[in-house]
Inverse folding.
């Protein structure tokens, strides 16, 4: 099948770019002397995991237990659920953990640590204590009084202290490589300090996990870390390109859409990819260099031959291409297929249960499943 | 099962409220003397359709061919795909149309009309010419020179001119009942004018379809219309409540979530419902009376006993509850379940493949499937 024959909207994944992005990140980690644990939260696909996995590590990170279940069933035997677990999720976690060699999850509280320690299958769990390295989303400060308390509860339990982990997500707020590198260093220092503090108290801390795509790309040292855990680099998106995580020609995921209406009076072309097909993420709104609306429109080959065309508005199933200059109505008659590069690919990809795979062209060479939901 | 035992995040649907919302809209249409064609784009569920369908009409509207396929397979025999179709979608449309009594779709161009007329199964299609009544998304102006041309192409084809249809979506930009009522009147006048113009040219125009939830609620006349086609009223959401489409206690859909982390230093409570579970819709940002972030947090019973708690930030799987006043950490220990009322329920519900159904309580009385994708 050709992309021109595909039903729209559809998710398109360029395998050539995916491979290149994965090779680049693996080489980056190797040059830093740290192993790579790819975070599969974006593509959620076993086919993608096979390409992304570091042969010297073997493991992955996931963002939902549904992903963990999916990857465990397909032979991945080192899975880290990189979100704070809660007591009610432990039974399902134990079921998954019982099927693979190493299953870990995050936690950042005494309450959850106690529930883990008391679980009848605590011996199956690897616990990563989440450290807040400045993102202030979740995690304990490296100097928190609770850090030692949590670690000792786990160490005294049948469970295993897998290590300490952090996510320098505040790197998304930085706008140049120097400030991202500074955040990467904050991220590294915080999680290494937490590990050293626990080791100083006589605890074994085998894993020291950090990572976001921007910090993995711009960090200057991985000293003390055992693994980096980026994810979005595999697919790439407009936001990551804009903050310098990868080039503008590295984006591997786009949404195939069809022109459904012309509104010349409004200088507007409407496509069948709206808020559900693109997501309502607006992360490019605050970027220097210009707001990219709900995505940048390129041609069916993925090339920017149409000029700067942006999806300026969305309804549930309608995307409105608007522009200051007159739109190229003649180049985009009704029925024309285009591709839309997403602002935030993790949000966009989630609407689809499969990807149409191309190798730098418009032939669909494979269809890859992806897992959704929780 | 009780909601307290459900895996989170999960979509909760209160059937008592759904029924009440459906009864209210049906009574509203009856009082206006017009039939109701419920738009199933939000709940996408046969169980919900059974409650919503007007016994005097029998039909529904849908926003994707996937929904059309789903509902056709479950016995609905009058389905209107309320989006402009394109030539490449006609084969699938013909397959669906071949299974039911009446299948229609929108179009607004000469190009698509010609493709429809030339299709080998054109006789299966009911064509609704879309009219732009001021929303400027898609549709022909009632006085467009193309209106007659499109209608005549269909009338001369084996296909059937089902009628003219419009969506007064610009009502979403209004903020009081008087201005919504004025838009409802614009909507009605535009689509009725289009019908009259075609009838004046000797064409049969059986259907005159209009509707959005705000205009259906606030319209003062349905003269000349044959049906109203609202959708979001079934579920309701914060945005619709804020603009007066329904009461604050009419919202039938919420997201069940679990508290996963406390960040007292940031006065922040984190739940396991983030950008994917809630959507990134920010339609309440521009509302008078206050921005509701990514959703309003209520207790597990759906009651506003927690004060004004808002999800102020989201990451993929994390929702950050923030507030100016100190948050109720003691009432919301880690593991506590809450419900989040969504800004825009059509976006939020799309992330789930089923709903947990309650009858104004916390007992899960049913699980309803829902169809996603395209």
């Amino acid at each position: 099948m050709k992309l021109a024959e595909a039903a729209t909207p559809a998710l398109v994944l360029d395998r050539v770019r995916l491979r290149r992005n994965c090779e680049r990140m693996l080489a980056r980690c190797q040059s830093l002397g740290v192993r790579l644990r790819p975070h599969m939260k974006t593509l959620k696909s076993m086919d993608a995991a096979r390409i992304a996995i570091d042969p010297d590590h073997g493991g992955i990170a996931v963002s939902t237990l549904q992903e963990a279940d999916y990857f465990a069933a397909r032979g991945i035997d080192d899975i880290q659920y990189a979100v704070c677990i809660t007591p009610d999720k432990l039974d399902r976690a134990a079921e998954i953990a019982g099927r693979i060699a190493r299953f870990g999850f995050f936690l950042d509280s005494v309450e959850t640590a106690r529930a883990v320690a008391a679980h009848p299958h605590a011996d199956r769990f690897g616990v990563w204590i989440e450290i807040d390295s400045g993102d202030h989303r979740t995690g304990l400060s490296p100097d928190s009084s609770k850090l030692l308390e949590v670690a000792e509860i786990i160490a005294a339990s049948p469970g295993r202290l897998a290590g300490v982990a952090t996510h320098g997500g505040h790197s998304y707020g930085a706008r140049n490589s120097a400030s991202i590198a500074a955040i990467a260093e904050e991220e590294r220092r915080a999680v290494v300090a937490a590990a050293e503090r626990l080791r100083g108290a006589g605890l074994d801390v085998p894993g020291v996990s950090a990572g976001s795509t921007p910090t993995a790309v711009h960090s200057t040292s991985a000293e003390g870390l055992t693994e980096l855990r980026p994810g979005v680099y595999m697919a790439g998106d407009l936001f990551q390109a804009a903050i310098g995580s990868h080039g503008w020609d590295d984006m591997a995921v786009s949404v195939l859409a069809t022109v459904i209406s012309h509104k010349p009076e409004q200088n507007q072309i409407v496509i069948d990819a709206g808020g559900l097909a693109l997501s309502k993420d607006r992360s490019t709104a605050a970027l220097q260099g210009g707001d990219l609306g709900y995505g940048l429109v390129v041609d069916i080959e993925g090339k920017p031959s149409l000029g700067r065309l942006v999806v300026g508005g969305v309804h549930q199933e309608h995307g409105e291409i608007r522009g200051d200059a007159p739109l190229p109505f003649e180049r985009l008659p009704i029925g024309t297929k285009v591709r839309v590069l997403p602002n935030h690919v993790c949000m966009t990809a989630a609407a689809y249960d499969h990807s149409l795979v191309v190798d730098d062209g418009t032939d669909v060479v494979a269809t890859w499943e992806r897992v959704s939901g929780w």
